[in-house]
Amino acid sequence: MKLSYDKEDIYSKLDEKKFKKVDEFTANYINFLNKAKTEYLCVEEFTKILDKNKFVDINTKSKLEVGDRVYFVNKEKSIFIAVIGKDNLQNGVNIIGAHIDSPRLDLKPMPMYENKGICLLKTQFYGGIKKYQWMSIPLAMYGVVYNEKGEKIKIAIGDEDIEPCFTIADLLPHLAKDQMKANANEFIDPEKMSILFGNIKDKEAKENKVKENVLKILNKKYGIKEIDFARSEISFVPSFKAKYVGIDSSLIGGYGQDDRVCAYSTVQAMLEVLKEEKEIKRTMVAMLVDKEEIGSIGNTSMSTEAFDLFINKIIAKSGKKDVDKLELYYNSKMLSADVSTGVDPVFEEVSDVQNGNILGCGVALEKYTGSGGKYNASDANAKYVSQVMSIFEKNNVAFQLGTLGKIGKGGGGTIAYILANKGVDVIDCGTPVLAMHSPFEITSKFDVYMTYEAYRTFFKS
Ligand code: MN
Ligand code: MN
User: Fold this and answer.
1) Quick one: 284 and 224 in the same domain?
2) In angstroms, what is the span from residue 414 Cα to ligand 1's centroid?
């Protein structure tokens, strides 16, 4: 009997039928990535999927019965989903939580200016990015504007072939002698990350002629004026498409995989469980939230008490007034569904390889995140790690036990601690990613599929 543990790749163990399933699942996932590049769009897409699958807004229900499928859209930017199980709520629920915001460039409240005959838009980066990666790439513009009447106007330009896109022009290498002397953190001044937005002059305007012309185009298309930028949330994201990567199409490249890979897999897992099971045992809950990339603060983040409101509604509408919410949390278990890092073969020096995630070897189960001496880590206890490992082992879910990287090389956190603070048992579990937070993040299609399998089996446990 072999006692030592070795990682194995998923592909070698897949039969043809499963391989086909992997391709089917990931093709749909790639499609989703191309449609949902902001948290607003994720919520829209998920709501569409849920509506098609007989989920309804929890506020339209006065009573909840076993088997009911409900969701709660929280201020357009996060969504909580539940399927009511047979088991007493007081015994806890199975929660999977992922985030749907990704690093990007946001517009400043007053972004527009004109210089040397070019109209530009000032941006502020959102989340942790290597700024140089966002220069001189095609960008698409997405967002919402609420006009003075309070009407919502949706903006989407740059992803359709017939539409123009946008970019930030980086300095040419020929004249970058001074720029290249600065360290990588400083050589792109965030105040210089302005979007090229227009170059044609308005014939009637006396000054700011290009800006006037650009505003006319915007006004014609969307009915907005310059002041309306102040009541908007507009982001610039990579406009190229997600695609398979590698001569064997084994990898997936695309923007926003952190953490839409886990969010998408969570929803698909829930839907699959509903197809497989006649009756749901433990209530399934998904929370797909915003603002993780900037610290999980605010009313659309994982920290929001809007989630408690959702749970309160479930308890009240189920007619279980005696259920103690704290007890419910205490007995609940959760996967914090966030991506982890894969060991990058050309930068392996930052990883402790035997405690790292190898692409193609499965979903990453991460006992703790944080940095240094486990600072700010939600450190899952051994008993719970064992429970989750058993669920995966019983169901042939390929998983690996990774940490983010070598101690002292940096670090990062997830949303795990937030529900753990409420008493829920939580562990991080998500897809390993290369080039995380870049405009083109890389995953293995086998790991993506295993992420879905992990969530599916967890929901059923
Ligand atoms: Mn993440
Ligand atoms: Mn992230």
Assistant:
1) no
2) 6
**In angstroms, what is the span from residue 147 Cα to ligand 2's centroid?**
31
Q: Is the dihedral of CA 287, 289, 294, 298 positive or negative?
A: negative
**Rounded CA separation 345/353 (Å):** 10
331: which residues sit within 8 A by CB, 6+ positions away? 90, 91, 92
Question: Do 123 and 81 share a domain, yes or no?
Answer: no
Tell me, in angstroms, the distance from the centre of ligand 2 to residue 258's CA.
5
**Nearest-ligand number for the alpha carbon of 261:** 1
Residues 98 and 110 in one domain: no
Q: How far does the centroid of ligand 1 lie from the alpha carbon of residue 423, in Å?
A: 22
Q: Is 291 inside a domain boundary?
A: yes
Residue 244 CA to ligand 2 center (angstroms) comes to: 21
- Supply the pTM of this predicted model: 0.97
Q: Which of 213, 238, 263 is at the close of a domain?
A: 238
Q: How far is residue 4 CA from its own chain's centroid?
A: 35
What is the count of structural domains for the chain?
2
3-state secondary structure of 182: coil
- Closest to 447 in 3D by CA, of 289, 243, 265: 265
Q: Residues 109-151: pLDDT tens digits?
A: 999 999 999 999 999 999 999 999 999 999 999 999 999 999 9
| Ligand with an atom nearest the CA of residue 338 | 1
Q: Based on the domain organization, do 47 and 120 belong to the same domain?
A: no
The residues, ordered by sequence, that sit 6+ positions from 390 with a Cβ below 8 Å of its Cβ are none
